[in-house]
Amino acid sequence: MDYAIQQTLNALSFGAEYALIALGLAIVFSIMGLVNFAHGEVVAFGGYSMVIVSTLLTNSPWILMAGVLIACVVASVALERVAFRTVRGADLTTGLLTAFGVSIILQNLFLLLGSPRPMAATQFIFLDKTLTFGSVRVSSLQIYETLATFVAIGILMTFLRKTTLGMAMRAASLDFEMVRLCGIRANRVIAGAFAISGLLAGLACIFIMARRGSVQPHMGFDPVLVAFVACVIGGFGSLPGAVLGGFLLGIAEVVVLVLLPQSAGGMAQAAVFTMVALVLIWRPDGILSPAREKGDKI
Amino acid sequence: MRLPLNQDQRKGLVGAALLSVIVLAIVGTYALWGESYQARILYATFVNLLVVVGLQVFTGNANITGFSHAAFMGIAAYAAAICVTPAAMKLISLPDAPWGLNAFDLSPIVSAMIALAITGVLGLLTGLIVVRLSGVGVTIVSIAILVIVHSIFLHRTDIFKGNQALFGIPKVFGLPHITGLVIIAIFAARLFRESAIGLQLRACADDEAGARSMGVDVYRVRLIAWVLGTMFFATAGIAYAFFLGTISARPFYFNFVFLTVAMLILGGLRSVSGAVFGTLLISIGLEVVRWLETGPTLAGLKLPQMLGLSGLLLGVVIVAVMAFLPNGIMGNREIEDLFRRKTKGD
Amino acid sequence: MLQTSSLKAFHGPIEAVHGIDISVAEGQCVTLLGPNGAGKTSTLSAITGTVRATGTIRLGGEDISRLPVEDRCRRGIAISPEGRRVFANLSVRDNLIMGGALQPDKAQLNREIEDWFTHFPVLGERHAQPAGTLSGGEQQMLAIARALLSKPRILLLDEPSLGLAPMIVAKIFEIVRDLKARGTTILLVEQNASAAIRVSDYVYVLNNGLISSHGAAANFGDGSDLMGELTGVHV
Question: Exposed/middle/buried for C61, CB within 10 Å: 0-12, 13-18, 19+?
Answer without folding.
Answer: exposed
